[in-house]
Amino acid sequence: MQDGLPMTTSRISRLQKCIAILWPSFLTAIVATGVFFSAFDPDDLFPFDADPEISRLGFYTIGFLLFWLIAAVSGIGTLYFAITNCMRQGQGKQDD
Amino acid sequence: MTSPSTKGSREPQPDEQLEQSLYAKRQKIFPREVHGLYARLRLAGVLGLLGIFYFTPWLRWNGHQAVLLDLPARKFHIFGLTLWPQDFIYLAFLLIIAGLALFFFTALAGRIWCGYACPQTVWTEAFLWLERKVEGDRMKQQKLDAMPMNAKKLRIRATKHTFWILFSVWTGFTFVGYFTPIIELGQRLVQFGLGPWETFWVVFYGFATYGNAGWMREQVCMYMCPYARFQSAMFDKDTLIISYLPERGEPRGSRKRSTNPRELGLGDCIDCTMCVQVCPTGIDIRDGLQYECIACSACIDACDDVMDKMGYQRGLIKYTTQHEMTGGKTHILRPRMVVYAVLLLVVMGIFAYSIGTRTSLGLDVIRDRNRLYRETADGLIENVYTLKILNMDKVAHRYTLSVAGIPGIELFTDMKDIEVTAGDVMELPVRLRADEAELKVRSSKVMFELVASDEPELSVQEEARFLGPR
User: Fold this and answer.
1) CA atoms within 13 A on the CB side of B271
2) Phi-psi bin for A45: left (phi > 0), alpha (psi -120 to 50), beta?
3) Structure confidence by residue, pLDDT tens digits, B110-146
4) Coil, strand, or helix at residue B422?
5) Which comes out higher in pLDDT, residue B182 or B414?
6) Burial, B158: exposed, middle or buried (Cβ in 10 Å; 0-12, 13-18, 19+)?
7) Do B208 and B171 touch, CB atoms closer than 8 A?
8) What are the tens digits of pLDDT across the range B319-347?
């Protein structure tokens, strides 16, 4: 922004955007998985309708991936709103 | 960020063009191998930490794996200690201790974590070592990189990646070995009989190792590491930093060994750029303290070596503090250090105390969800519960169960003896009956107490609610 250029999504490379979304959500997912599954045993959560093929390790894995997905979706939202806000502000400055 | 700031660039441009003009592509870094005191220290750190990581799952303790975070069985074995999901608080404690220790050591010695102990550094060192073994030194690596793809380059690159991948798979396997018994895991691995989830995690962790240590390297520190962003908040003028001494080094310039630099009007820096060549993050330490610097001290070793060759005094680049650089004295005992140290000791004390006095008995009370209460034939109010009794001890115990909180409350269970084998959980359905006249409110507090018959000090209490019509 120092150079007066409007902030656009392309100021951040696609790879950096991916990292910015996937990496913090990965860390969040680890914590969420740890807290969630230490409080709830998957065998208690799905005692009857669980597929016996899916072991506890499987539930943990699926849980972790779901947490990662949810956190990543939230990250996409944050990045989207932050960038579109910056773009608006950048355009506002240009109009002055 | 470098970007052209001409008037023309204010015009909206197609996305692709902007991306190209605004982002300098990452320059691949080929750190030169370095020898010296700090390189030896780092090597010791790398070997020690990798040794601990790869060796620990193979340790045995009383006939079982010494460190096994047995996720499938929901029990963590750490030498003589067995932790249950109920003990999650200890993990939180450990994380707080680790965080405080990081604060303490950062304030004291700057980014020594980054330079010597961070897994990113440690694994990158291992990958760099493999790379040097296959591709040769820095010059050879640069030459190979610039070469167009041919049979020789393909062969060398394929060899390197094969070694990297093998090492990564071994790393992923070791990682999973912390969570499922590693000997059985190894047997299944050689028989190609790994379960789908185990395979997923071996591949996932292996891929992360390969990607982070082989490809991303310093970019992890620069773009992904949260610690790199906030570590400077712990810094003060007495924190150990790596710095170039400009007043001694400048003006820099090349000269013959035999000449007296003072006659030429030169400082001690001969501008050989060795400090830049050895830097794993590709910065020039002579530009001052930069957040990219992971304090690995490779530049100190490189510069000391050059100073020796030139016959100058060592320490043109060295560990110092801002106070020392401005002619003052470094204070180690300062309020910030004392606060961090006291906090650290208090939390560690609480942790050790609570681990030491942990009861190896757990009791969970779950109310029957189907019905709030029931009136029995003889007019009493009955509530139904399921008790989960966890024997976290190493031996089996018999327990006596009692309840208190409402006058005349009675406890019924179908089980004559409550006996739980070592490391087991028992579910015990229990009915409580109380006289309606004794119930003052709709929901009264009752307290279950479980005492080991053979060891009265081994007891646990758990609160529950007793619901009635009022």
Assistant:
1) 10
2) alpha
3) 999 999 999 999 999 999 999 999 999 999 999 999 9
4) coil
5) B182
6) exposed
7) no
8) 999 999 888 888 888 898 999 999 999 99
**CA B172 from centroid of its chain's CA atoms:** 16
**Contact check, Cβ <8 Å, B10/A94:** yes
A52 interfaces chain B, CB cutoff of 8 Å: no
Note whether A91 contacts B: Cβ–Cβ < 8 A.
no
CB atoms under 10 Å from CB of B188, counted, come to 15
CB pairs under 8 A between A and B: 62
B116, B45 contact by CB (below 8 A): yes
Region of B460 please: left (phi>0), alpha (psi -120 to 50) or beta: beta
CB A6 within 8 A of CB A87: yes
DSSP string, B233-301: GG--TTS-EEEE-HHHHPSP----TTS-HHHHT--S-----HHHHT-TT---GGG---TT-----HHHH
Q: What's the mean pLDDT when you consider all of chain B?
A: 88
pLDDT at B89: 85
What mean pLDDT do residues B31-48 have? 92
Reduce the DSSP state of residue B18 to 3 states and report it: helix
Query: DSSP code of B313?
Result: P
Residues of B in Cβ contact (< 8 Å) with A3: 3-5, 9
Give which of B454, B444, B385 is closest to B417, Cα–Cα.
Answer: B454
Which structural domains are found in chain B, ordered by start?
26-358 (no CATH), 361-467 (2.60.40.10)
Which three-class secondary structure state does DSSP give residue A21? helix
Pairing of strands B397-404, B443-452: antiparallel
Comparing CA positions, the residue from B429, B424, B438, B426 lying closest to residue B466 is: B438
B87/A10 Cα distance (integer angstroms): 47
Partner-chain contact A57 B71, CB within 8 Å:
yes
Q: What three-state secondary structure class fits B329?
A: coil
**C-alpha to C-alpha distance for B306 and B299, rounded to whole angstroms:** 11
ipTM of the complex model? 0.77
- Residue B228 to residue B219: CA distance in whole angstroms: 11
Q: Rounded to whole angstroms, how far apart are CA atoms A15 and A86?
A: 20
Q: Which of B175, B224, B366 to mutate to test the interface with A (most CBs of A within 10 A)?
A: B224
Q: How far apart are the first and last CA of chain B?
A: 71
DSSP symbol at B24: P
Burial class of B293 by CB neighbour count within 10 A (0 to 12, 13 to 18, 19+) = buried
